[in-house]
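Example record

The entry below shows one chain as it appears in the dataset: sequence first, then structure tokens.
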Amino acid sequence: MPDGRPAEATVIPNWEAPLPMVTPDEANDIATGRFFATGLAMGAADAIPGISASTMALILGIYQRLISALDTLVRWCRSLSKSKEDRTEATVQARRALSTLIPVGLGVLSGIIIASFVLVGPDDAPGLMRRSDTGALAYAYIFGLVLASVPTPWLQIEEIQFSHWLLLGASALMLASISLLGINEEPPPMWTIPFAGAIAATAMLIPGISGSLVLLILGHYTIVYSALQDFEIVILGLFSIGLLAGALLSVPTINRTLERHHDAMMAVLTGLILGSLPYIWPWKEQYDIEAGLVANIGPSGPYIGVAICFLLGVMTIIGANFLESRRWLRG
């Protein structure tokens, strides 16, 4: 150099260098946050008749882990009557399962509460899905979410066979025909609330089947969500007992089916997701969910808004799947 100083070396960034590895505590925090966010989406979904909480778990990649964790908790309950060694091993496994179930459960509860006010809402302040000016837009976004998630379980089948197509078609037709059962509009007696909770819990654990839709058909949707908004302890307590009993009884069967007949189960789940689409068609005669199942109608606008919301729903799933494939969401 003219001034006698040595030239500074040019630093060339190495864009291909690996990112710093996260610590175990950071990985646990990421996983916990992901489980809570998944639970939030599950709770918000299950507050809406026609939307399945487990579909959201399947989309976000934790469904089988969630069922396995619940099954571990059931095995821990059964181990209480066994030897000390069995109880100790089951306790260790149960603690691991709770690291998944607690954040998911808190997310589900938060999602249900938020959705019950924002999307459903009380009678004097209807939420987005019950208003004629926003109902089609809200349903369009959800329709895009669910439609884009159809390939998720189907692509998990190792070798697609003709029997899988039959299972897909049969399960889709079965769920789509549930609307023919009609709605029980009579106020249900108190003693039926735990049984409704047990049935709803079983439905919540099967992708494609909406727990809220089952409650609507049984005539318990209004009483349960009104109790949630008004915080009626007795009704919520009875319903929670039914939810717990239904989950404990149904989880072992679901878990065994996933382990022994994985491909057939994935075909059925794909059909159930397809069968749920008629319930979330954007255009309806009216959007008062508490009045019962609302009838679908042909497209009647606002077309641009509906199209944008539908595409946003599709892009949400595409983005979530992309992040999942890059392991950015995995703890």
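Notes for this example: The chain has one domain: 24-325. Residues 38 and 108 are 8 Å apart (CA to CA).
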